[in-house]
Write a structure and sequence with these properties.
The chain is α/β, with parallel strands linked by helices. It has 12 helices and 9 strands. The protein has one domain: HUPs (Rossmann fold), CATH 3.40.50. The chain binds iron/sulfur cluster.
């Protein structure tokens, strides 16, 4: 999907100038109808993923990038009729010099604009190490392995402390399609079964929902631009080493040749997910000594941190 040159085509809904052409369904849309198109899908996803009538406090994981900023903005908009439901934003500061401070600045700006309470948590405060330190260890695991595990821990522990019943992330269609392919090709069927929004409430684990799960990344980008949202476009300096980049390229190439591929990957996954979940039901969780939920004696973040201690 590319923004069109002015005057190239008109919106299929109102015949105003289109701002975009959506290749996978052949629709030209103006700014207003494009925004509505994205919001409709988010509302539908929310209805499918969770019964919001039961929720009184919802936390949004806000990085300051476009996806989580769009997720927060739409959630505030679609839930404005629920004064009994409080939305709070959580930002994790991993401690990545030259990258994270700018995204935090944008997150602060957005939450101030939307009137949303904003909470910060850092790796340094939570586990006594920052990401730049962790990346320097001689581990064969890439920086993103540490980052992903510790970030999930930080988000879960802060959301729990704040009394949130649900945690929304900015995961989009591209992320989801890439994760599905990655786990398929690695043969990690158990992890494949655990992708997707949480459907079982487990003690100590705040269930995660993914409102943008069916919204392609280029649409969240356009949405953020049209809404004038403050967000940072910078890329993490450790992103180069991420295996995900290879899958991003593959999925984008397929989408380019065969529009609709990303949706098909996720739809295929969704149709086999019940079978996967039957084969690999969510494990019963206990508590790690750090207080976080775990299916083993030790949670993943404590196990990783111990591994690092031995290396230094
Ligand atoms: Fe963390 Fe890797 Fe993402 Fe950087 S690219 S923020 S290290 S997960």
């Amino acid at each position: 999907m590319l923004p069109l040159k002015r005057g190239v085509s008109s919106c299929i809904k109102c015949h105003r100038e289109a701002v975009t052409f959506i290749r996978y369904n052949g629709a030209h849309l103006c700014d207003e109808h494009f925004l509505q198109y994205v919001e409709r899908r988010v509302k539908k996803e929310l209805r499918q993923q969770i019964d919001l009538d039961e929720v009184k406090k919802l936390a949004v994981a806000l990085s300051g990038g476009k996806d989580s900023s769009v997720a927060l903005c739409i959630l505030v908009e679609v839930l404005h009729h629920r004064p009994d439901l409080e939305i709070v934003a959580i930002t994790v500061d991993e401690g990545i010099v030259g990258y994270r401070p700018k995204t935090i600045e944008k997150a602060v700006e957005l939450t101030a604009r939307l009137g949303v309470e904003h909470h910060l948590i850092s790796f340094q405060d939570e586990v006594g190490k920052d990401m730049d330190q962790l990346a320097r260890t001689k581990s064969d695991k890439g920086p993103c392995t540490y980052c992903g595990v510790l970030r999930r821990r930080c988000m879960n522990s802060l959301a729990r402390k704040l009394g949130a019943e649900v945690l929304a992330t900015g995961l989009n269609l591209d992320d989801t399609a890439q994760s599905i392919l990655m786990n398929f090709t690695r043969g990690d069927v158990e992890r494949l079964a655990r992708l997707g929004p949480h459907i079982k409430v487990q003690p100590g684990l705040i269930p995660r929902i993914q409102p943008l799960r069916l919204v392609p990344e280029n649409e969240t980008y356009l949405y953020a631009l049209l809404k004038g949202l403050p967000f940072s476009d910078d890329e993490c300096p450790y992103a180069d080493s991420a295996l995900r980049n290879e899958y991003r390229e593959i999925v984008n190439k397929l989408e380019d040749k065969h529009p609709g591929t990303k949706h098909s990957i996720v739809a295929s996954y969704d149709s086999i997910r019940p079978l996967l979940m039957e084969a690999y039901p969510p494990a019963e969780l206990g508590r790690c000594t750090c207080g976080e939920p775990t299916s083993n004696q030790k949670c993943m973040s404590c196990a990783l941190l111990e591994e690092i201690k031995k290396m230094v």
